[in-house]
Amino acid sequence: MTSVQKDTLKTIVTQLYKDITEEIKELEEKTQPIAPDCSLGRLTRLDAMQEKSINESILAKARIRLKKIQFTLDKIDHEDYGLCTICEEEIPYERLCVMPESTICVTCANERDKS
Ligand SMILES: [Zn+2]
Questions:
Q1: 100 CA distance to ligand 1 centroid (A)?
Q2: Tens of pLDDT along 23-43?
């Protein structure tokens, strides 16, 4: 990985961190308990509860990703960043741009999914 590529990745990761933090804030607001005496009709209330549970699962995933992104930010300056933790090959730069939190390469990811 060139230093220019690494700088680009740093920008991507920093931006992702901000975006996900924002997203979590919004989702936290959307997953506030629904007041029982709200003026919504029964069906609307059911809709609201369904939407809330969808948002809760998105929120849970976003929190996990945020942790990984945070970990990536700590690790990105280390020389082993971008190396697959299983086979120690370089993870392709294109993959890191999309998923900078990747710690394994596509080949190992596929192998792992098979087993
Ligand atoms: Zn690998």
A1: 15
A2: 999 999 999 987 776 666 777
Separation of 83 CA from ligand 1 center, angstroms? 8
Q: Residue 68 has what pLDDT?
A: 97
Torsion over CA of 59, 65, 70 and 71, rounded to 10 degrees?
140
Question: 87 CA distance to ligand 1 centroid (A)?
Answer: 4
Contacts of 91 (CB under 8 A, 6+ apart): 82, 83, 84, 102, 104, 105
Domains delineated in the chain: 3-114 (1.20.120.910)
CA of 79 to the centre of ligand 1 (A): 16
Expressed in angstroms and rounded, the spacing between residue 114 Cα and the centre of ligand 1 is 14
Burial 50-76 (b: 16+ CB within 10 A, else e): eeeeebeeebeebeebbebbeebbeeb
